[in-house]
Amino acid sequence: MKYFGLIWSNAWRKKIRTSLTILSVFVAFLLFALLSAVGYAFGVGANFADAERLIVINKITLINPLPIAYQNRIAATPGVRSVTHNTWFGGYYQDERNQFAQFPVDPEEYFSVYSELVLPDEQFEAWRKNRTGAIVGQALADQYGWEVGDRIPIQATIWTKADGGRSWEFDIEGIFSSKTAGAGATTFMLFQYDYFDEARAFGNGTIGWYVLRVDPDADPVQVADAIDQQFANSANETETSTEEAFAASFAKQYGDIGLIVRLILAAVFFTLLLVAGNTMSQSVRERISELAVLKTLGFTDMSVLWTVLAEALLILAIGAILGLGVGWLAVEGLNSQFGTQVPLYLTPMAFVTAFVIMVVAGILSGIMPALQAMRLTITDALARG
Amino acid sequence: MSKPLAKLQGVSRVYQKGKERVEVLHDIDVEIPEGDFIAIMGPSGSGKTTLLNLLGGLDKPDAGTVVVGDAELSSMSNSQLSHWRATHVGFIFQFYNLLPVLTAQKNVELPLLLTRFSSKERAERAAIALDIVGLADRAKHYPRELSGGQEQRVAIARAIVSDPTLLLCDEPTGDLDRETADEILKLLQILNKEHGKTIVMVTHDAQAAEYANRTLLVDKGKLGFKAAA
Ligand SMILES: Nc1ncnc2c1ncn2[C@@H]1O[C@H](COP(=O)(O)OP(=O)(O)O)[C@@H](O)[C@H]1O
Ligand SMILES: [Mg+2]
């Protein structure tokens, strides 16, 4: 691009003004990166949701349990391929600040439903055979430095043991990874439901919720209705929804974070447009006669338009790249500190969105001055200058 | 007499000033031979700049034809005129009109951005042009670091870098002291005599006009050559 030198020099005509404009672009994109990562953390469930998976919860609330006895009847419902159950354990490791998710599950069933998880066969076998065995996600293992063979105590916040104790000990038999990318994909722990149900002080014979996979040719909505009808008018009525809808309602508990994030960003980028637009129109106003000289030398109206527009895009791009870069470093840093509690992640989609915003903001802030430059007639401009 | 480089026939230019119609040039015929050096003189507002703009394809006549070389400027579109200007004509202004954000070298390279030359070729040609105007040692300087005379030399280098046949100068010495003005005028004379440039120069200054071969007088919409003294 042979015009780059010209565009670059023009962009730095007033160094302080351009620096301040770039600074405001930088701040906007830094905020964008941080808020996107926070938005991701609050939508983590939804990020891994699978349309072919259904969740069955107690109709009253998610917190009310369901009988384990429902499992066979759910499995027998036409259209259900496999089913497993899940329960929120809610424990921490050593210190209350070390919170992460633990679930007592049935190993085989769980892996048939959550096929995105990857665990070496021999580790899976070892876990299945050990009643107090557990497997942990890679991110979790990295965070606490756990290895296969470690014995770890988890303090229960809900589930006291029948003997009155609150400390549950587990042998780490495996470390799993996930085919799904992103923070939060492997920040939880799984252990055996049989051990959990036998050792706990209350709630025996119940589970938190069921997760099932429907046959590929079955209609998830019909399957969900069929399940809920089976348990209508029973002591524990059910409510079945897709995993996506379930995760979304789970995230709603925190208020509509996504909306708040979008509103803040809209305000930030609106301000940014005013700042960048003002810089560009001032800059063009100051060099009317220079633009006329370019046209005199043989630059066409179109190429003059492009040099001004490219200048706006350049300023936006410098600020955006710096802002996203620093934002990315900050998210990575925070993630290595607190990733297992609040999984922060900048998705590829967030980068694509940032790129689109950058281009659109560049065009919007540059287009009016660029058109003004394009329409300029040489004789008028030189007579004025 | 050599064949004409530029030929204006029946040219009129009218400006609308509010409700008033001002006919700046009225039915003008003039021929400019190739290799000539012509001064244009006339009172302020008589249409000297207008005439120069028509010759350089910056403006179009309301009536008549303007032909420069093989190009009939009066019937060309704006973008055709842009492309034509890039290679056929060089402009020199009273206030130099250099880009303050570019060095002398980069200012001189500007017209070459519109050509197919590589960046190396552009730099070489700009260096040659700066050498011709005697400013090879100021290539890296910004306009604000140069004197008025030096700025005008850079502007001349920019005007000749794409090797046009025609140079149009609008009061090129209007902002310079006598001594500097004479240096610039001598440089124009060299470009005319040694480099074969056809030069049309608007000036207020009778001494400046002495450097030209002939003087064209413009007044009240008409023009004619000054009788040889
Ligand atoms: N773009 C324009 N619009 C309206 N009037 C103009 C324009 N350009 C020049 N004029 C008028 O045309 C006349 C001649 O202008 P110009 O050619 O610049 O004169 P000179 O260069 O001889 O001083 C002046 O009266 C000027 O006001
Ligand atoms: Mg004039």
What distinguishing features does this structure have?
heterodimer; A: 385 residues; alpha+beta; 2 domains; seven-stranded mixed sheet; four-stranded antiparallel sheet; 15 helices; 55% helix; elongated; B: 229 residues; alpha/beta; Rossmann fold; six-stranded mixed sheet; 7 helices; 31% helix; globular; binds adenosine-5'-diphosphate; binds magnesium ion
Low-confidence stretches of chain B: none
The description of the largest β-sheet of chain B is: 6 strands, mixed
Kindly report the average pLDDT value of chain B.
93
> Level of helix content of chain A?
40-55%
Element pattern of chain A in H and E: HHHEEHEEEHEHEHEEEHEEHEHHHHHH
Q: Strand-and-helix sequence of chain B, N→C?
A: EEEHEEHEHHHEHEHEE
Please report which band the strand proportion of chain A falls in: under 5%, 5-15%, 15-25%, 25-35%, 35-45% or over 45%: 15-25%
Secondary structure tally, helices of chain A: 15
Count the E strands of chain B: 10
How is this structure best summarized?
Helices cover 55% and strands 17% of the residues of chain A. With 385 residues, chain A is of the alpha+beta class. Chain A has two domains: 4-44 and 256-384, no CATH class; 48-254, no CATH class.
Describe this structure in words.
The complex is a heterodimer of chains A (385) and B (229). Chain A has 15 helices and 13 strands. In chain A, helix 2 (15-42) packs across helix 13, helix 12 (288-297) packs across helix 15 and helix 13 (301-338) packs antiparallel against helix 14. Helix content of chain A is 55%, strand content 17%. Chain A has helices at residues 4-11, 15-42, 44-47, 70-76, 107-113, 121-129, 138-144, 193-199, 220-230, 243-252, 257-286, 288-297, 301-338, 348-375, 378-384, and strands at 53-58, 66-67, 80-86, 91-92, 101-105, 117-118, 133-137, 151-156, 167-178, 188-192, 206-207, 209-214, 238-242. Chain A is α+β, with helices and mostly antiparallel strands. Chain A has two domains: 4-44 and 256-384, no CATH class; 48-254, no CATH class. Chain B has one domain (35-58, 77-226): 3-Layer(aba) Sandwich (Rossmann fold), CATH 3.40.50.300. Chain B has helices spanning 48-55, 78-88, 104-109, 119-132, 148-160, 178-193, 206-209, and strands at 4-17, 20-33, 37-41, 63-68, 71-72, 89-92, 166-170, 198-202, 214-219, 222-225. In chain B, the strands form two sheets. Chain B has a six-stranded mixed β-sheet with strand order 6-7-8-3-9-10, with helices on both faces. Chain B has a four-stranded antiparallel β-sheet with strand order 2-1-4-5, with helices on one face. Chain B is globular and about 50 Å long. The structure holds adenosine-5'-diphosphate (ADP) and magnesium ion. Magnesium ion binds next to helix 1 of chain B.
